[in-house]
Amino acid sequence: MAEHRDNRQPSSSGVSRREFLGTVGAGTLGAALVGPAAPASEAAAPQADGLAPVTLLINGRPQQLRVEPRWTLLDVLRDRLGLTGTKLGCGRGECGACTVLIDGLPRYSCMTLALEAEGLEVTTVEGLMNGEELGPVQQAFVDEDAFQCGYCTPGQVVAAEGLLRGSPDPGLEEIQDGMSGNLCRCGTYDHIFKAVRRAVELRQSAGS
Question: How many structural domains are present in the chain?
Fold first, then answer.
């Protein structure tokens, strides 16, 4: 089985993908790498009940909500919007089960405040569907049997989607590096890497 590496070597930006995913919710590093997110301090102030109004763009649809400033994006996706494809894993930015795309880049939703996501485009695993059909990356994971228990699979799929948006035809080492922020406790890494390559083929076929 291909070795899954927790590639912690600095990237061209000086930060590995794992370090990036685990720290973007803190603010300054995320701003340096993906542009300025709307900080919670600039959002509408909490009202008397402690809830602040926020409009989130989730899978292309605006969602107007009232949230506690401490609520994470993961909390809101699962508990307020019913988008339970995004999973709660470690809750501290280490496993990748909660990965979503924010402005096309993979981020841990457990480390991102809901108020930080205002004005940004959030894509969950549900947003990768083509109507009622699986998207190319989702289909590739089925084709390559790239899951066992399946709990980490939504985060793996979203991370693969983010990788392919930035690098449409990655080699094995790039795939290993790009997926290193997502852990599979069942150890299905070889199939996951094959699924990413299969997704390349499906995306190219869909574009032809």
Answer: 2
CA neighbor of 180 nearest in space, from 191, 167, 168, 189: 189
For the segment 53-111, what is each residue's pLDDT rounded down to a tens digit? Answer: 999 999 999 999 999 999 999 999 999 999 999 999 999 999 999 999 999 999 999 99
In the predicted model, residues of the chain with pLDDT beneath 50 are 1-15, 19-42, 208
- H or E segment to which residue 142 belongs: helix 136-143
Domain that holds residue 93: 17-127
- pTM listed for this prediction: 0.78
Apex 26 CA angle, 22 and 160, nearest 5 = 35
Judged by DSSP in three states, 52 sits in strand
DSSP 64: E
Last residue of one domain, picked from the residues 106, 127, 148? 127
Instruction: Return the number of other C-beta atoms located less than 10 Å from residue 9's C-beta.
Output: 7
Query: Is residue 4 assigned to a domain?
Result: no
